[in-house]
Every structure is written in structure tokens, then in C-alpha cells.
Write a structure and sequence with these properties.
heterodimer; A: alpha/beta; B: about 475 residues; alpha+beta
Chain lengths: ~180, ~475
């Protein structure tokens, strides 16, 4: 049951924040760390319209939890040449850009969500720049700084979820 | 002119691999190799860490089947803390672990079938890759795609309830577990709103088997013959010969069903199983020592398991097992594509076993842990979704791990996967100088039957495009295709 379903009186759009990665591989866990860090802030501010989740990777079953929310924010670590973090809007796509069978992209899950549940949540991907990927369960200092910057940027949108709908690719561009 | 064609990576298998096809002057395949760059760094990484950390640490191997590594490491540590080799745990501890394991088998097999295999069956292996995925299934057969998604979700929720959390679960500890199953959790799975309850999972599991059997009847030429070859088969079996995916003795049979490894104790695996090193790959080639490197290689996984066991201890899966066995008149099944059939029977078995366990009041008991006299070495084995998984550790007087040896399922299947690639490559590529999409996919489909987890065996980071390279006999690149 989503946070929104748990609190029927809350009329705000239901938001899902979903971080993914392997926290045992240093900065690969930035998405998971984002979820861990935002959890207490959400509870403190009694933001009952927000649901949070995390896993090693996205997969087909995540179409179900997406379908039960109005807005979805995926959070992932990235090696892309960006400064610290950026946001892109996610459009449904059935193209298999990755060569893995056990992980799928946000665009793939969104497409699946539309096809089998007829739901189309507004979906974003927050990319947080990472630097180290070894067998260690801790973030690099640089990765942690980027994480904190991303957290501060996102919090206002969580407090006022309607503002999420105004997010365009140029609000925190990846280029 | 001799040519070498390289296909990399193998799409839709975890991590990346590379297939090279060597051709002679007449464009006939003379040699194929599946290259998997195994990364042994993890075994070194874990050295020097306290033994009790192992069940959590090993989940860093990869995020695909962390539960299998978690439980295999915990079983090895059971030995080290003196809790015995499978029968020393309290009932609640063993049953919680089994429930976790069946949840893992269920969700992993379901993903493989619905996400990877069903598109190939529904649309044909030569269909446009753009529709040959679960999105294509969702458009043409929506109910099947919904089943795949919800069955995966059910399995994942079982894991979360038993392992404590989705990531880096802590459910299994040396000598036991750290939580039982609450009544609320139990009822969530037994009486959950449709479709998320165990009865629906059993119903859908049966439906998936019928789907495959129907397909096999109509396409027996493809399913029976593609990459079929005789081999030995190895798995754990219960001491009475029953299927037991969590614990047992090691049994191997040859291609005709003759027992060639007679139910040996996993603690003694090094007396029976060797690992060959080859110059062209970092991944080892396990074999039965008694039969040597050439004749002692074996398959693991669903096909192998249904060849080694005598029966399945759950009624619906046993009935399907009898149908399956009758197809080969009781003889071992050496048809690689029948692995999908075997896998679906295991899905049903896992669902049935989950129901049995969920109805067992032992799961609500509180005696979670067993301790005994510490020893310095332990082996933990189980049947992971892709096959037999070995974890072997030795500790020192400071309780620190000083040796770790892991043989993962994909490594066990190294030789069979290479055999399968060779067969399909010869069939599809002889006489050709250009690799077409259907040819590439035929090779991939043959490998995919083994559901290899190259990530587990390689730990490769980064994404690579699909690339085909063509070399002449002097190893000069003469063509390369990328997508």
C-alpha cells in the first residue's frame, strides 16, 4: 500500500522516491543513500504523500509500485561527465539500452507500467555523480557532497509536490 | 582465409560476455569460445574479515542473486560455529531460510521465463528484437506480462519478509536466523488480496507450465534439438533422492542416468571436484576428478537437477515431473532448451513449498540460533536458481577469514555453455561471412537457456554496446559491427 493510500485524507499527489544501486560498491549506492537520507526528513515533516523504496536495480515488478503513484523520482549514481547532479524527465521507451537481463531502465519500467497498468506517472531520474566503485560500503567524500547538494535541491519539490510537474530538463540539466 | 568473428557482449545476460567464432578458408566454423572475464578479487577481498560478516559481505558480489550467496555463506558459517551441516539448526531457523530460498528461486525463475524466454517463444527467436521483450509481451499478451510482474513481486516480498530487507539482508546469521515470521506477514502471503497470495502463485505457475508444454508440442523440432548434447549432470539431492534446493548431498549422473558421483558430503567436495584453468579465459572449468577434464565436465541448474533427483516432494510438481520424465522415457534429458521446462517445474515446486512453510507454525517460534564448538573450516552449498553454488571458508585463531573459495553456478556451467555455443554456431554460421541478427540471437538463446549470471562471475563494471568484430587468420580486424 502506498503512502497516499495509507492516508486517504492527503490530497497531494502521491510521490515515489526510488533509489537504486549496490551500496556494497561505494558510490554505486548513492541512490540508496539518497533514500536513506531523505527518509528521516520526510518523517520529521510528516509528508505522508511520499513513499520511498530502494533496491539493487530496477526490475519489471517496479511497474506495480509506479502505477500507484502520481510522481516518481528515480535516483541513481552516474559516471557521466556532470558536475554533481542533474535531473532528466523520463519518457517511456521499450528500447533495451542495457545488455543485462536482470536490470531495466527507468524508461523501460515506465513503458511497462503504461502498457500493463494503463498508468502514466510523471517520472524523473536524478543522476548523482559518483567516483569510486570498489567493494566497500561507504561513499567517497566527493560523492557524499554531491548527494547532499542533490538532497537540498529536491526537498522544496517534495514539500510542494505540484511544483514537480513544472520540472523540465533544463532545471538541473545534465549537459 | 581464416576468420575470427567476435560477438560481444551477449545481450540479455547479466554483465557482459563475448563470443568469438573462428572460421576456416571455406567459411566453416572451426572453433568457438564464450569469453567470460572472471574476477577473483572478491575472494581476496573477504580475507581478513571476521567470519560472522561473511553472510552479509558476500551480497556485495552482485545484486542479482544476493540471497543465494547470503545463504551459502551462512551455511558455511553454521559449520564453523559448530551448528552442524544442515540438521543442526532449530526448526524455525532452517524453515525461515528455506522460505527465503524458495522466494529467491521463485522470483529469479519467473523473471527468466516471463522477461526473457516467453518473448522468444511468443514471437520467435528471429523476430524483431524491438518486440522480443516483455514490453512486446505486454502489448500482445497482457495477462502473461501481468503475471510475470506480480509473481516477481510476490517472490521479492517473501525475500524481504525473511531476509529483513531488500538490500544486504541480514536474515541468516552463523548458526541460525535473526527473525521469525510474524502472523501478519504470514497472512499477507496466505490470504493476500488477489493476485498477491500463494494460491494464485500456484495457479499461475501451473499455467506457465501448460504454456510451455503447448509451445513445445507445436515446436518440438526447435525445442528438442537446439543445442542438445549429452552430458553429465550434477546437483544436490536430499539423502532419499528427493529434490532439495536448500540442502543435501552431491550427486552426479552421466548422460544415460548412471550415477557417477554417489551422494557425497558437500564438506568433501574438494575430493571429487577439480577446476581446470585455460589460457584464453579467466573463468575456470570445473570437472569430476575421477573422470578427468575431458569426460568429467557436467551441467548444473534446472535441467541437471531434474536429471539427478528421483522425485519431487510436492504433489503438483511431482505430477509435472512425471510428465517431463516420460518424454525421455525416464532417461536423463539432455535437450538444453528443455531447461525452460525444468525451470518452470521448479517454479511450481517453490510455490508449493512456500505454501507448506507458510502454514507451518514453527515459523513463529523464537529459538532462532544454535551454537556449538567452533571449527576452522566450513563449506556451504545450495542449489541457486542457476545451479549448484559452493562457498568454502577457512578462518584463523583470530576468527578472521584466511581463505575463501567460491564456485558459482555460471562457472559450473562454463563447459556446457561453450558446447552449446559451438553447436549453434556451426549450425547457423557455416558457409556465411556475415553475422545476421537471427544468427546472433540463436547463439544468445542457446546461452540464455543456462540463465548465466556473468555479473556474478565477472563483476564487470560499465556498459558496452553490442559489437561484432571480424578478424582474418592473421588476427587483423576486417569488419566490425556495433549496435
Amino acid at each position: 500500500m502506498t503512502a497516499k493510500e495509507n492516508n486517504q485524507k492527503d490530497s497531494r499527489p502521491g510521490i515515489l522516491i526510488y533509489g537504486y544501486g549496490n551500496p556494497g560498491r561505494e558510490d554505486d549506492g548513492l541512490g540508496n543513500a539518497f533514500v536513506g537520507a531523505i527518509r528521516s526528513w520526510i518523517e520529521k515533516n510528516k509528508l505522508t504523500h511520499i513513499e520511498i523504496d530502494s533496491n539493487y536495480q530496477l526490475n519489471i515488478e517496479d511497474a506495480d509500485i509506479m502505477a500507484r503513484n502520481d510522481i516518481v523520482l528515480f535516483v541513481d549514481a552516474t559516471e557521466e561527465p556532470i558536475e554533481n547532479f542533474c535531473i532528466t524527465t523520463v519518457k517511456p521507451s521499450d528500447s533495451r539500452v542495457e545488455f543485462t537481463m536482470h536490470a531495466v531502465s527507468p524508461a523501460f519500467v515506465l513503458d511497462l507500467c503504461q502498457k500493463i497498468f494503463n498508468k502514466n506517472p510523471q517520472t524523473y531520474l536524478l543522476h548523482i555523480k559518483g567516483y569510486r566503485w570498489d567493494f566497500k560500503e561507504e561513499l567517497s567524500p566527493e560523492g557524499e557532497k554531491n548527494l547532499n547538494k542533490a538532497l537540498e535541491f529536491i526537498k522544496p519539490f517534495l514539500s510542494s509536490p505540484d511544483s514537480f510537474y513544472s520540472i523540465k530538463d533544463d532545471i538541473a540539466p545534465c549537459q | 582465409m581464416s576468420k575470427k568473428i567476435t560477438i560481444e557482449p551477449v545481450t540479455r545476460v547479466e554483465g557482459h560476455g563475448k563470443v568469438t567464432v573462428h572460421m576456416d578458408d571455406n567459411n566453416n566454423v572451426i572453433q568457438t569460445r564464450l569469453h567470460i572475464v572472471e574476477f577473483r578479487g572478491f575472494e581476496r577481498f573477504i580475507q581478513g574479515r571476521p567470519y560472522w560478516e561473511a553472510p552479509v559481505l558476500v551480497q556485495r558480489l552482485c545484486g542479482i542473486c544476493p540471497v543465494s550467496h547470503h545463504l551459502a555463506a551462512a551455511k558455511a558459517m553454521d559449520v564453523i560455529v559448530g551448528a552442524g551441516t544442515g540438521d543442526g539448526l532449530t526448526p524455525v531457523a532452517e524453515k525461515m531460510r528455506r522460505l527465503m530460498h524458495y522466494g529467491q528461486i521463485f522470483q529469479s525463475h519467473v523473471l527468466h521465463f516471463f522477461h526473457l524466454v516467453s518473448p522468444d517463444l511468443l514471437f520467435g527467436i528471429n523476430a524483431d528484437p524491438a518486440i522480443r521483450n516483455i514490453i512486446g509481451v505486454a502489448m500482445e499478451h497482457k495477462e502473461l506480462a501481468v503475471q510475470g510482474v506480480m509473481m516477481r513481486k510476490f517472490g521479492q516480498e517473501i525475500i524481504k519478509a525473511t531476509a529483513g530487507k531488500k538490500i544486504h539482508g541480514t536474515g541468516a546469521i552463523p548458526g541460525g536466523i535473526n527473525k521469525n515470521l510474524s502472523i501478519e506477514e504470514r497472512d499477507h502471503f496466505l490470504k493476500g488480496k488477489d493476485p498477491l497470495n500463494i494460491d494464485k502463485m500456484i495457479e499461475w505457475s501451473l499455467g506457465a507450465i501448460e504454456f510451455f508444454k503447448d509451445y513445445q508440442k507445436k515446436n518440438s523440432d526447435l525445442i528438442d534439438n537446439m543445442a542438445a548434447f549429452p552430458s553429465n549432470h550434477l546437483s544436490l539431492v536430499r539423502k532419499d533422492g528427493a529434490m532439495d534446493l536448500y540442502h543435501g548431498v552431491i550427486r552426479a549422473v552421466d548422460a544415460n542416468g548412471k550415477k557417477i558421483l554417489h551422494d557425497v558430503d558437500p564438506q568433501d567436495y574438494l575430493d571429487y571436484i577439480g577446476e581446470e584453468v585455460k589460457s584464453w579465459t579467466y573463468m575456470k572449468f570445473p570437472f569430476l576428478i575421477e573422470y578427468g577434464k575431458e569426460k568429467g565436465w557436467y551441467r548444473v541448474g534446472p535441467l541437471a537437477r531434474l536429471n539427478t533427483i528421483d522425485f519431487i516432494p510436492s504433489p503438483l510438481a511431482q505430477k509435472e515431473f512425471e510428465t517431463y520424465k516420460s518424454y525421455t522415457k525416464g532417461k536423463p534429458n539432455n535437450m538444453s532448451m528443455h531447461t525452460h521446462w525444468a525451470r518452470l517445474i521448479e517454479v511450481l515446486h517453490a510455490a508449493e513449498m512456500m505454501k507448506v512453510l507458510l502454514n507451518d507454525s514453527d515459523l513463529q517460534k523464537n529459538n532462532l540460533e544454535t551454537k556449538g564448538n567452533k571449527v576452522y573450516e566450513g563449506v556451504g552449498m545450495l542449489e541457486a536458481p542457476r545451479g549448484t553454488l559452493f562457498h568454502h571458508y577457512r578462518i584463523n585463531d583470530q576468527d578472521l577469514i584466511e581463505m575463501a573459495n567460491l564456485i558459482v553456478s555460471t562457472t559450473n556451467n562454463n563447459t556446457p555453455m561453450n558446447k552449446a555455443v559451438e553447436m549453434v554456431a556451426k549450425e547457423q554460421m557455416n558457409g556465411h561471412t556475415i553475422i545476421t541478427e537471427p544468427m546472433m540471437n540463436a547463439v544468445e538463446v542457446a546461452i540464455r537457456a543456462y540463465d548465466p549470471c556473468l555479473s556474478c562471475a565477472t563483476h564487470a563494471l560499465g556498459k558496452m554496446p553490442l559489437e561484432i568484430s571480424l578478424y582474418n587468420k592473421n588476427n587483423q580486424l576486417i569488419d566490425r559491427k556495433r549496435k
